[in-house]
Write a structure and sequence with these properties.
alpha+beta; 8 helices; 22% helix
Amino acid sequence: MSPQSNDITVTRLTGSIGAEVRGVDLARDDGGDAFAAIHRAFVDHSVLVFREQSLTPDALVAVSERFGPLEQHVLKQFALPENPDVFVVSNVKEKGKPKGAVRAGQYWHSDCSYMARPTLASLLHALEIPSYGGDTMFASMAAAYEALSATMQGFLDGLTAVHDYTHAYETFFSKFPDRPPLTEEEKAKVPPVEHPLVRVHPESGRKALFVNPGFTRSVVGLSEAESRALLDFLFDHARQPDFIYRHRWAPGDLVIWDNRATWHLAIADYDMDEPRHLYRTSVAGDRPIRPAERTGRAA
C-alpha cells in the first residue's frame, strides 16, 4: 500500500495490472491533488477500482471529463436520453425492450479499437449486480508484450492490423437474437481501420500489444493463414493468468481502465433473469503511436 495525496491510498491488485483506490468520494471531490494522484495511478496500473461510490449520470460525466473530452457510442439507442454521454450496459428490459446494450463486452476486446482514434479510457459504474457471477476480467497488453522474446517483439513492432466492428457481430453477436446486426447507417460510421500491432503509451512510454479477438480482423501484409496463426498465438499468449485481474462487482463500484494498454471481458455466467445494470462513459482517444514514431525513425 502506498500513500498518496491527503487520505488517498492506492493498493495493487495483481503483479501486472490493477489497483484499488480508497479515501476519495468521487461525487464530492473537485479534482486538484486528488485527481493528480488518481491519474498517476491510472497510468501506472491501467485499471483502477473505486468502491462504494454513489454517482448520478451527471456526476459520472464530471468525473470522466477529468480524463479528457467524452465520446458517444455508435449505438445511440443505448445512451441515456437525458444524458447521451452515458451509455447503458444492461440486461434489464422495459416493456419488452432492452434498456441498454445486452451482452456487451462478452468477448476479449479493447473499447472502440475499430475507430481511427480508439477510446482512451472507459468508466463503468455498477448500479445493479446479479447475486452471483458477472465478473469482468482485465488483461495487461503491456505485460503481455514485455513477456515476448526480443525477436518476436522486433517482428511485431513493424506490423499493422485491421480493426473492424462488424467482426464482433460476425463472430459473437450472430449467436444472439437480442443483439441484431448493425444497420447500414451504423456500419458507415465505423469503417474498418488500420492500427499498429504494437502501440506506445504516450504517457508511460511502455509498448503494448494492440490487437484483440473482438475487433481485429487480420494483419496487413500476411496471408490469411499467416495472419490467423499469428493472431491466434498472440490472443492465447495475452490470456495467460499472469496478465489478468478479475473484478467481482458490487453495487457502487466504479472501474476505470486504460484501453491503450488493456483488454477486458465481461463474463456471462449469471442468471440473465437477474438484473445487471451499469452506466458507462468513454473518454476520447488519439491516434495510436508506432514504436518507430516514438524513437524518431520513419514510420
